[in-house]
């Protein structure tokens, strides 16, 4: 089921989401300051490419205060916009029964898009 879900996801727009995150990652890589943020957008890009069968695990890794500061910077400059876009897409997909699995994937991406630092992807 995960394989089929990923194929349908890619065909109906997941590849474009992947490309947008990848493009954003390369733009962030241009500056030294943007490299930690680019690594997070790479993480989101590969989750956006094949989201079925993967889950976002809230990390309990050592990072503490640095993760909090980086998440605050992320939320101010990009996180809210990314999360709102994924939430809107989730609401649009949730209108039909067939779209509910895709809505769940957008909710996963919305959570990671809002708070990327300190979270891991399992699967």
Key terms:
single chain, two-stranded antiparallel sheet, mainly alpha, 123 residues
Overview of this protein structure:
This protein has 123 residues and is mainly alpha-helical. The protein has one domain. It contains four helices and two strands. The protein has a two-stranded antiparallel ribbon with strand order 1-2. The protein starts with a helix and ends with a strand.
Quick synopsis:
The protein is mainly α. The protein has helices at 2-29, 35-49, 64-93, 100-114; strands at 55-58, 119-122.
How many individual β-strands? 2
Which spans have pLDDT < 50 for at least 5 consecutive residues?
Answer: none
Whole-number radius of gyration?
Answer: 14 Å
Kindly report how far apart the N and C termini lie: 14 Å
Order of helix and strand elements from N to C terminus:
HHEHHE
Helix content: over 70%
Largest sheet: 2 strands, antiparallel
**Widest β-sheet, arrangement of strands:** 1-2
Count of helices? Answer: 4
Q: How many domains in all?
A: 1
Q: By helix and strand content, what is the structural category? A: mainly alpha
Q: Note the quaternary state here.
A: single chain
Averaged pLDDT:
91
| Residue fraction in strands | 5-15%
Q: What is the overall silhouette?
A: globular
């Amino acid at each position: 089921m995960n394989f089929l879900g990923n194929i349908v996801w890619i065909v109906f727009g997941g590849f474009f989401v992947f490309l947008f995150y990848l493009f954003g990652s390369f733009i962030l890589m241009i500056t030294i300051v943007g490299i930690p943020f680019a690594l997070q957008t790479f993480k989101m890009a590969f989750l956006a490419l094949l989201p079925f069968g993967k889950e976002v695990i809230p990390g309990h890794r050592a990072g503490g205060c640095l993760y909090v500061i980086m998440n605050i910077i992320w939320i101010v400059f990009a996180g809210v916009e990314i999360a709102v876009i994924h939430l809107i897409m989730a609401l649009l997909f949730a209108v039909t029964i067939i779209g509910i699995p895709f809505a769940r994937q957008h909710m996963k991406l919305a959570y990671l898009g809002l708070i990327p630092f300190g979270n891991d992807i399992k699967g």
